[in-house]
Design brief:
This protein has two domains: about 15-35 and about 270-375, Alpha-Beta Complex (Aspartate Aminotransferase, domain 1); about 40-270, Type I PLP-dependent aspartate aminotransferase-like (Major domain) (Aspartate Aminotransferase, domain 2, 3-Layer(aba) Sandwich). About 35% of the residues lie in helices and about 15% in strands. With about 375 residues, the protein is of the alpha/beta class. The radius of gyration is 21 Å and the shape is globular.
């Protein structure tokens, strides 16, 4: 593996989302951020005032473990909390893989999913899904990258940046091929966007418990709109791996914040109410976005998402390479942010658009500004 940088992790401009937040931010992938006051309403203030600011339990508090276990429909002792889903993947990869081992990664994907693996010096074999095929997941194609050296297969459902779900029957095929070709491999499934559905459309069942070879990860960040809590979790069927992950966690982050855990417990107890409001907002935003696409189909193609507050658009061939470059260079002039495809392993002609982060009125204004940007270039 060639390295063209001096740091352990490859640089990626997605880090700009932590420092730049323009008025018309269509680059974010979360639903509308919750305010602290909203979450505080879900907890007993006096108990929070009396909370001792010591270390949290390494695995996770018993109450939070029970709540998450119920959400995922698995035994509560399977649950280990992490600082978000990304840390969950990092700790899993750190324990399962050694330099030179192979990981099969389905792309395009959230950049830290890929870059953390490079930082661990494993051989990453990417299975690139196609915009032209609707980012559909084909297990047989992915299986061709498996070998006896494969230790981890990493996927997301719904996928980031496309918002396309992975069909359960495809997961079954992939697991069968893994047992035949890569008997030591584990399937990691990022389910961060699973419950970010539209209106009354039900979320897919979690893949936690579907197979002992599956580790799932999720968090309070995307569907619930509380990324600032930095509270995620893993479902780990095998006790031996749970213990290894807990040891790795102790040697990296020690534990979660007890404040984050307390707030997360309150939030997750009221999850259905929060999700219900956000799902209605997402449906309305997606309806607006669908209409906007129909009115701009001469400029862009899109893949309509199945879940999540994100989707992918592609600039049509009428845009020359220089026009595409100019489009990106001038976005700040429109107070616009989009997430370019090259963040995720795609071309710069493709961009991820987040439709859940902005208030409805601002979102409509942002689409109007995007119309102007497309027509001007």
């Amino acid at each position: 593996m060639q390295r063209d940088h001096t740091g352990r992790f490859p640089p990626n401009d997605i880090i700009s989302l932590l420092s730049v937040n323009r008025r018309f931010n269509l680059a974010e992938s979360t639903s509308l951020d919750l305010e602290l006051g909203e979450v505080m309403d879900f907890v007993n203030i006096e108990s929070l005032r009396a909370l001792k600011l010591g270390y949290a339990v390494n695995a996770v508090s018993d109450e939070l473990r029970r709540i998450v276990g119920k959400i995922c429909k698995v035994p509560s002792d399977w649950i280990v909390t992490t600082h978000g889903t990304s840390m969950g993947l990092y700790l899993t990869s750190l324990e399962l893989c050694r330099p030179g081992d192979e990981v099969v990664l389905v792309t395009p994907c959230f950049p830290p999913t890929r870059d953390a693996l490079y930082g661990l010096e494993v051989n990453v074999k990417e299975s690139q899904l196609s915009f032209d095929r609707g980012y559909e997941f084909f297990a047989e194609e992915i299986s061709r990258l498996l070998s006896e050296r494969t230790r981890l297969v990493s996927i997301a459902s719904p996928m980031n940046p496309s918002g396309i779900r992975v069909k359960r029957e495809q997961v079954s095929i992939l697991l069968k091929r893994m047992s035949e070709i890569a008997p030591q491999a584990v399937l990691f499934v990022d389910e961060t966007f699973r419950e970010a559905t539209y209106g009354e459309r039900p979320a897919d069942e979690s893949l936690a418990g579907f197979s002992e070879r599956i580790i799932t990860a999720s968090s309070c960040s995307k569907a619930l709109g509380a990324p600032g809590l930095r509270l995620g979790w893993l479902t780990l069927p095998k006790r031996s791996l749970r213990e290894r992950i807990q040891t790795a966690k102790m040697n990296t982050i020690i534990s979660e914040s007890v404040v984050s855990e307390a707030l997360a417990i309150g939030l997750l107890k009221h999850k259905e109410d929060v999700l219900g409001r956000k799902q209605m907002m997402l449906r309305s935003a997606l309806d607006s976005l669908s209409l906007w696409h129909d009115q701009h189909s001469e400029y862009v193609d899109w893949i309509k998402p199945e879940a999540g507050a994100i989707c992918c658009f592609r600039l049509k061939d009428r845009y020359t390479k220089s026009a595409v470059d100019d489009f990106w260079a001038r976005l700040p002039n429109y107070e616009l942010q989009l997430a370019p495809g090259n963040w995720f392993g795609e071309s710069s002609r493709i961009f991820r658009l987040g439709f859940g982060y902005l208030e409805p009125h601002t979102f409509e204004l942002a689409l109007g500004m995007l119309s102007k940007a497309l027509k001007d270039h």
